[in-house]
Amino acid sequence: MIKNKIVLVPFPFDGFKEMKVRPVVCLTNAIGKHSHIVVAFISSKMPDEKLSSDIIILKTHNNFLKTGLNVDSVIRLHKLVTIPKELIKRELGFADVKLENEIAKKLNVLFSE
Which overall architecture, per CATH, does domain 5-112 show? Predict the structure, then answer.
């Protein structure tokens, strides 16, 4: 199972002109014969304006070490992409149950608006 894992993948940037290996959280398990996974972008650059679809993960959170991230980060749930599972470069960690529930709640709001 890959859902809720935090992994490194090549992530496309605006215009899909360039890609960088970035951390993402896997929002689904592998789907279909091509094993596609829906992922959300994670950034270490804190936004000037937090959006309703952002989840801030601070190093001071109890389960921060489980994420495998090195610095305070933000999950940007409005930055989603579907990738083949084979693009995963490395597993960093995972979203614990509390973070998993927060992701599900915010995705529900995002897709209900």
Answer: Roll (2.30)
